[in-house]
Amino acid sequence: MKKVVLIVLLLIASYFGIGFYFSISDERKFSEFESACKDANEKIFQHKASGKIAIEYRPVSGVIEQKYYPTDLAKQLLNEPERFEMVQLLFSSDDLDPKRPKNKEYCYGDFVISAVKEDQLKIGLCGMVNGKEHYWERQNSENVADYVIKYKYGIRNEYDIRPVKFYIEERKSGQVIAEQNSFQLLLGRMRESKNRVWLGWGAAEGAKNCSLTEPKAFVVNAVNPNG
To answer: Whole-angstrom Cα distance, residue 167 to residue 161?
Structure first.
């Protein structure tokens, strides 16, 4: 039995070792990413005003994007200058791992966390933090902000680059009022350790974004919290 386990481990190590050795160089990935970013663009179609804004949030994403990551962006939007009075995180049980047991009624459905300060933004699976209910309630047509920040991701290519759309939608009409069409370089598979980034105890890889207007500035340019 021990020999079988050892052989399996050696095969796994050999597989990843060979794949790692012949993987695309980091320099090539950075070069391809720089080239892709030449097509990145942003547009604001309409300027709006509201002291309240919502962000779609998927608790299990596999990638943590600096400044764009929903909880990080929410904290920025609650901070001066140009802070929103309230920032909401919208999440759904449909975005959770279907294999994860949901033995509580509140694990099912669409939820909203409404925060007026940073420490109300803590979130866990099923709206839980350390096993205790937090600042969530079920979504309805009356308790969600009129403007919602959303994310849409494309397929990761051989250079670990994927397209990403970061946009703001008017909830009732579904109309997009502002959007960034960009790219991300995912850093979990970089060959050199200095370029490889894993976060959240290794549960999510880091990502590098194209140099467009930073997300908070882009949001407040489209939706003025002091308007």
So the answer is: 19
